[in-house]
Write a structure and sequence with these properties.
Layout (H helix, E strand, L loop, with lengths): L6 E3 L3 E10 L7 E2 L3 E2 L3 E17 L2 E18 L4 H8 L2 E3 L2 E3 L8 E12 L4 E13 L20 E7 L8 E6 L2 H12 L4 E9 L4 E2 L2 E6 L4 E5 L5 E4 L2 E2 L8 E4 L6 E6 L4
Parallel strand pairs: 13-20
Antiparallel strand pairs: 1-9, 2-3, 2-4, 2-9, 5-6, 6-11, 7-8, 9-10, 10-11, 10-12, 13-15, 14-16, 16-19, 17-18, 17-20
Length: 267
């Protein structure tokens, strides 16, 4: 019997927020400086959909749902006042954060990474990018407690309202074979890393290195090595088998995403 697929979430890593620089009418927003919100502890995303039914002949004939909004509850290890001021739109001067009745939290983009465990004990890293979030001051938490017999550290908690951007998109997700590649992809979405995703898929009795999806800097080179000589290799639909040398195919001067399909002999 074939082994069943295992793809289990392990936790959450990294968390970034960047205020919007521009909100174009028919494009994704552009981002300002990326703020490292600290090591990720918790990320809980609840999504609200509007739903409806069309009835006829005393029965429901059509059911539909449409995205309305979401709420991301996050906890991190970094509770710096400067970060709090930036997220909630407060004044920060001479090391002091001032809260005012007219504070207006800026909209921005948010990103984090979710590791997953597979049946062979390998890991895959899912990068999550939200296009349009705004901190919710009404959900701000500020709890303190004295140390007793044990020590229970309090994490920095921020809740964000999640909305769609002007294109209608509200979230992108992509999985990578390494955490570093997932992080590069997030930085690319924020506009702080200029690079492209290279996704490698295979069939037949052979392996590829690297597998899955990796990031390559703009103008950079990514070599893809094969355990055995492949029958065929396709890059973005083009047959590039003739470009394989010493069981290696190389992408040079990267200027776009690449979807590479490798076909090995059946056995």
């Amino acid at each position: 019997m074939k082994n069943k697929t295992v793809h289990v979430k392990l936790g959450m890593r990294r968390s970034y927020f960047a205020p919007h620089a521009t909100m174009p009418a028919n494009a994704h927003p552009t981002c300002g400086p990326v703020l490292d919100m600290g090591e990720a502890v918790l990320g809980h995303l609840a999504v609200t959909y509007a739903s409806g039914d069309v009835h006829g002949d005393d029965a429901s004939r059509l059911h539909f749902e449409s995205f309305v909004s979401g709420q991301l509850d996050s906890e991190t290890t970094c509770g710096e006042l400067e970060l709090s001021a930036a997220v909630y739109g407060r004044r920060f001067e001479d090391g002091a954060e001032t809260s005012n009745i007219d504070d207006a939290p800026p909209s921005g983009c948010f990103g984090y990474i979710e590791p997953f465990l597979r049946a062979d004990k390998s890991r895959v890293y899912r990068a999550v990018f939200l296009y349009n979030v705004t901190a919710m001051p009404a959900q701000e938490k500020s709890d303190s407690d004295t140390r007793k017999a044990d020590f229970n550290p309090v994490m920095a908690a921020v809740s964000y309202f999640v909305a769609a951007d002007n294109t209608g998109d509200w979230r992108d997700r992509k999985e990578f074979s390494t955490e570093a590649a997932a992080d590069d992809w997030l930085m690319n979405k924020f506009g702080s890393f200029n690079g492209y995703a290279v996704t490698v898929r295979r069939s037949g009795a052979g392996t590829v290195t690297p597998g899955g999806t990796v990031m390559v800097a703009a103008g950079g080179t990514q070599a893809i090595a094969f355990s055995v000589a492949p029958t065929a290799v396709f890059d973005n639909g083009a047959n590039v088998t003739a470009e394989v040398s010493n069981k290696t195919y190389s992408i040079t001067n990267a200027a776009a995403d690449h979807d590479v399909i490798v076909i090995f002999p059946a056995s």
